[in-house]
Amino acid sequence: MASVPQCADTVGVEEEFLLVDTASGRTTVRADAVLARVADTDLTKFHAELAGTQVEAATGPCTSVAALGDALRLARKTLSEAAAELGLGLLSRGTPPKPSKQPIVSRSNPRFRRVLDTYAGVVEHYEASGCHVHVGVPDRETGVRVLNHVRPWLPTLLALSANSPDRGYASWRMVQQSRFPGSGVAPEFATAAEYDAAVARLVACGTIVDTAQTFWLARLSPKLPTVEFRCADAAETVEDAVLQAALSRALVHTACQGDKLPPVRDDVCAAAVWTASRYGLDGPAVDPWHERRVPATALLERLVEHVTPALAGRGELDLVHELVQRRV
């Protein structure tokens, strides 16, 4: 079995869930009540989100996708049971079919208040939920090289996850997220210092509230020694989350092996993100290297082929093939 570099050893997932009133089907501002009924474990931590209609479960670092799946299942079970005690359901989807009619952002949290004051109407009804994957890296310089490598593949990970259809879009969540300044695929950076300077510049310009907040689809985690993939809609199933995690970690592994890809243009990456949000896997995608439309499933096949050695080295190739087939 091929050895796996340190930077691709651990993987963890943050899942955002929506709380739905079972009688009306609408999201409801009950996050505090649900979180008061759950307790952190060695496997998972539970958190509040900007929207009071959302809760988050974050796994610890796992070295196997089997352990990750176990942690995700337990977290969902814990939150579902706590919600059910209050007459609520737990919804794992990019956007709610029936959004809340009441204000969703509390001003009691100072940082949330700053976010609301900064983005005003863009964030007042923002209930978009994502599946965020963290992959361990040994240092920030390696992390920046990984970010450069994964840029062309982020739209494909979005298309694979798209499950928030609305107004003709496969991922309405991504449309909502695109309203924030600096959303989408990050530019290339030569060094971690250059990356940090770009984030600091956005703070100085007033388009993000602090250095812990960026809207890029992949970034260096502001708190953990990881690269954080933020492109996917909230996973409908644990298996969908595991698939995102396996592919993300395999991309990091491949980047750490030194494999280089031809550079891609920022505007073409933006076109690829929009196309992925519009069509998901059921229509065209943008090939970022040839700068033209191709079937989305063709790019997904190319992604799996690109990371096949990394998946095979961990014994995850058959699992990924099986999970991909369920999505296409």
UniProtKB/TrEMBL annotation:
Stored SUPFAM superfamilies: Glutamine synthetase/guanido kinase
Catalytic function, reaction form: L-cysteine + L-glutamate + ATP = gamma-L-glutamyl-L-cysteine + ADP + phosphate + H(+)
Keywords attached to this entry: ATP-binding, Ligase, Nucleotide-binding
BP GO terms, sorted: modified amino acid biosynthetic process
Its EC number(s): 6.3.2.2
Keyword Ubl conjugation carried by entry: no
Record bears the keyword Nucleotide-binding: yes
Gene Ontology MF terms: ATP binding; glutamate-cysteine ligase activity
Enzyme class: ligase
Domain of life: Bacteria
One Pfam family linked to the record: GCS2
Entries under InterPro entries matching the protein: GCL_type2/YbdK_subfam, GCS2, Gln_synth/guanido_kin_cat_dom, YbdK
Family annotation (NCBIfam families): gshA_cyan_rel
Recorded family membership: Belongs to the glutamate--cysteine ligase type 2 family. YbdK subfamily.
Role summary: ATP-dependent carboxylate-amine ligase which exhibits weak glutamate--cysteine ligase activity.
Entries under PANTHER family matching the protein: GLUTAMATE--CYSTEINE LIGASE 2-RELATED
Protein name: Putative glutamate--cysteine ligase 2
Organism: Lentzea fradiae
